[in-house]
Amino acid sequence: MSEELQPKSIADDAVVLDVREQDEWDAGHAPNAVHIPLGEVPQRLDELPEGDPLPVICRSGNRSGRAVAWLKAQGFDVANVSGGMKQWAFEGKPVVSEHNVEPTVI
Question: 95 with 103: CB under 8 angstroms?
Fold first, then answer.
């Protein structure tokens, strides 16, 4: 079982790895998130931010859970964000968007 972090335990300005698709990212994401879609993670390991552990997030926690399992197998210190961006937003954590639109989690 991978380590899980509750959104409320993560600082609002923390760097998190967001593995959702581009349209999900554009609609709304954590302010200091780094966007690397799940399918691109293996080719973009050199872009992973430092974390101790690095929180990994998606919409609900499923894709990020897969990313965490794979990254842990590669030796990375990562943790899944329980409930994903849906839980992040539900708990009132900050969400920003691209293109000056109202941020939302899709």
Answer: yes
CATH fold of 4-38+57-90 reads Oxidized Rhodanese; domain 1 (3.40.250)
Transcribe 16-83 into DSSP letters.
-EE-S-HHHHHH-B-TT-EE--GGGGGGGGGGPPP-TTEEEE-SSSHHHHHHHHHHHHTT--EEEETT
CA–CA distances in Å: residue 39 to residues 4, 6, 46, 81? 21, 24, 15, 18
With 0.85 as the threshold, say if the pTM is over it. yes
Q: Which of 10, 56, 63, 66 is nearest to 34 (CA)?
A: 56
- Name residue, tokens 């708990």: 91
**For 25-78, what is each residue's pLDDT tens digit?**
999 999 999 999 999 999 999 999 887 899 999 999 999 999 999 999 999 999
The domains of the chain are located at: 4-38+57-90
Active site residues: 58
